[in-house]
Specification:
single chain; four-stranded antiparallel sheet; 35% helix; 12 helices
Length: 328
Amino acid sequence: MKERDTGYSKKEVAKLLHIAESTVYLYAQQGKIKALPNPFKILPEARYDKLSVDQFMKEQKLDTITGISVPSFAKQLNITPGKIYKLIHMHNLEVELVPRGETRKQYFLPEQTQIQLKELIDGQEFKKGLRSDFYWHAKDIALFQAFESENRSLLRVTRKDSKSWGFYLTTGEWIDFEEAAYRYKLRPLYSIHQKTERNIGKAHFVIPKDYKNLYECIDAVYKTWGIENCTINLREDQLYLSLKSGKWKAVNPVPYVPIELYLGYHLSVGNLEYKDGFYYVDGDMKRTTIDLSKNTYDDLLKYAVTYGRDLREVIEESIKEKLNREGF
């Protein structure tokens, strides 16, 4: 007797169709695939007709895909899909375009493109950190902040590990911050605080840890932006710095050499200029207002929810695809 076909599981369908498991039920509701009847709950979970799934897979040319979807790849790297799309367009990387309905296509990344993206992200993308990575709230101190001792010696705050803040003396000896502050009667050379601004976008810099003017950069950043408007993330031999966009009054700019000349060599994304006592930062984001018809908005929102995407990224991606088709 021929064994009854119990179909594909939800997990198997998701893998075959390159979709999230949460989308499988939606596809069945839309009639794209068929769920097997289970009137007496004989099956412990929903199963899906193999013929309908296989047919849909062939119609959409999903059986020829060798790569991975952008959302899945972004999830692996713990970054947003929007960054992946941006790199694809900036560097004209190869992708597999797979139909999703009558007019829409979805990007899939071949193995070589995945390798290229990883190299770009590791080499150029800004590695964001948390404020706690460079600022110790309890003591109100920041990474590489300058302190002066009673005899006017200069010391800079650093971290030996995730919980140890202090200084390395000229002898190579490590001393805890609290002990050093008491022993040498330390005082900060400047405030590390400025008013928090709600500006959109940031300029990003990747600076070698052994860069000879690193400390001058750090001092200017804390004086001008404060810990409220910058982020610093120290990873092995690289320091990742971001500055909020906008017009910033330069506080005690570096004499003779404007700080943008120091930082400019290490700019990853955005722009930084100095003029008449102000720093002008142009970041990675611009704010605009777009009025959409209700139907368009609903379609975009439905797509974003279905694929677990951010609505802003979906809109930006749609605009970029339109521009690319027009040759821009």
